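User: Hello, can you help with two protein structures?

Assistant: Certainly.
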Amino acid sequence: MNVSDSEIKSLLQSYKSITVYGLSHDPSKPSHYVPVFIREKGWNVLGTYPKEHNVGSFPIFKNLNEIPKEDRKFIDVFRSSDKIPEVVDEIIALGGTEVLWLQLGISHPEAEKKAEDAGIKVVSNRCLIIEYNRFF
């Protein structure tokens, strides 16, 4: 993680659109209720999920490359830690991502370093709900 604790509030204030990588159709999962929460707090939320769904009326795309580049600047990831290297490779290959946020319980130091080396700000093992409630 190359973003210090003191930078998180300003980072969240700097972006109005968040793409959720792995936005679930299951309302009981954090990968669904966290995006609902952040949308309710004013962010534009888009998601990726391999299967089509329209739960929560989010714009859902099968792949990250289908999402407009301007909406891929801040990517919030809900994938297991072992999948983070492939997510980072995909993000770097597409370009345009400025922030990679790995939700609570998710980290992969080598992949995070690779993202950092590509100029991406990385926050890992942090929940957007917790961080929002802490700063706002």
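That covers the first. Now for the second protein you mentioned:
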Amino acid sequence: MNIELISLPKIEDYRGNIAVIEKDVIPFEIKRVYYLFDVPSTAKRGGHAHKEQFELLIPLSGSFDVQLMDGENEQTVTLNKPDKGLLIKANVWRELDNFSAGSVCLVISSGEFDEGDYIREYDEFLRYLNDTP
């Protein structure tokens, strides 16, 4: 599957740790940053794929599950460490659920918002994969 778990550089200190994102930590230029918070534990987020954009999901606080599908395989990744990020490359369907109380999901994207880059219906996603060389 077109995903990768990335360990963020961590500076450990008795006063608290720092995770750093700079230079070549992620394999793309950052174009957009946003975060999900106050998500009810019964809610789902995501429910789409990107044609070109890459995204790095980081659990700043709490935990949540990421359901991933590439048209052939399915995988669930639980994110619960703020120094571990999930890189989701193009053409991977994602759904986020099972949010713990107080969880915050930071998303770092390779592109600015572009509705044309989104595929928001799973059946359309499967058709897109079959039509993509």
